[in-house]
Design a protein that fits this description.
CATH architecture of the largest domain: Distorted Sandwich
InterPro entries: Dup_hybrid_motif, Glu_permease_IIB, PTrfase_EIIB_Cys, PTS_EIIA_1_perm, PTS_EIIA_component, PTS_IIB_1
Main location: cytoplasm
Structural class: alpha+beta
Subcellular location: Cytoplasm
GO biological process, one term: phosphoenolpyruvate-dependent sugar phosphotransferase system
Oligomer: single chain
Number of helices: 5
Strand content: 25-35%
CATH superfamily of the largest domain: Glucose Permease (Domain IIA)
GO molecular function, one term: kinase activity
Distance between the termini: 39 Å
CATH topology of the largest domain: Glucose Permease (Domain IIA)
């Protein structure tokens, strides 16, 4: 097979995979909309990078058990509705559900089952560096139960002393949230990493953040990817503590680090998997 033929077949395969992934995400959005009581029950829908936030007219019409079956890692009832943790796909799901509410006719499909993907990853601690300067913290010290209870994955947190965020790995930027406070990276090792700068920083709507990368961009370990104004964030968000979460670890993998240690952005051997 020629190199050109191989590249052509590989491109077709990638396009097919992308179409399948888009279809699965759309099917999921259809089922979530139904599980929260349909469009008539939704007052408002929004998303952080890890969770859907749905304000509803009647909480009794929300089927939390079904939302969990659909793949949510957690469903929390709040005063005005629910928050459902769907990880880094939450923002895309929010947009799809808004499109559905807007009148797009989509065929109803069977509820999918949650699936654990088996990913073989090459582990090398030298591929990982600290993304921030500051103090290493255990996730239990993060003032947000989504992170402190490890609902979306294991990891650690940093209480930063500087606002420059660098890529902890060689990899590719997968998602940059519109409000700039959170970034997900696919490492060359196969690990998906979510960095969520501060807590409740989605409310700042981008204020205090300067993005240095965009979705789809390849990044090198130690490369600056975000600058944050700590003074603005301290004054307007509930915390500057920043969780770093590995969202696709296998059951055998854990993140090991020294809680309380002071680290520098770009420092090697801060944590191992």
């Amino acid at each position: 097979m020629t190199k050109e033929k191989f590249q052509e077949l590989n491109k077709k395969h990638s396009n097919h995979e992308n179409k399948n992934n888009s279809k699965k995400l759309l099917d999921l959005a259809v089922n979530i909309l139904d599980a929260v009581g349909g469009k008539e029950n939704i007052k408002k829908i929004d998303a952080c990078i890890t969770r859907l936030r749905v304000d509803v007219n009647n909480i009794n019409k929300v089927d939390s058990k079904r939302i969990m079956i659909l793949g949510a890692q957690g469903v929390f009832k709040v005063q005005s509705g629910i928050q459902a943790v769907f990880g880094i796909e939450s923002d895309q799901l929010k947009d799809l559900i808004k499109d559905l509410i807007g009148g797009n006719a989509i065929k109803r499909i069977k509820t999918p089952h949650k699936n654990q993907s088996n990913i073989t990853k090459s582990i090398d601690k030298n591929l990982f560096v600290s993304p921030l300067s500051g103090k290493l913290l255990d996730l239990k010290d993060v003032p947000d139960e989504i992170f402190s209870q490890k609902i979306i994955g294991d990891g650690f947190a940093i209480e930063p002393v500087s606002g420059e965020l660098v890529s902890p790995v060689n990899g590719k930027i997968m998602t940059v949230f519109p409000t700039k406070h959170a970034i997900s990276i696919m490492a060359d090792s196969g690990h998906e990493i979510l960095i969520h700068f501060g807590i409740d920083t989605v409310k700042l709507k981008g204020e205090g953040f300067e993005l240095l990368v965009k979705s789809g961009e390849t990044v090198q370990v130690g490369q600056p990817i975000l600058r944050a104004n700590l003074e603005i964030i301290k004054s307007k968000a509930s915390s500057i503590i920043t969780p770093i979460i590995f969202t696709n670890l296998s059951k055998e993998e854990t993140v090991t680090f020294e809680a309380g240690a002071e680290v520098k952005a770009g420092q090697e051997e801060v944590f191992i998997i």
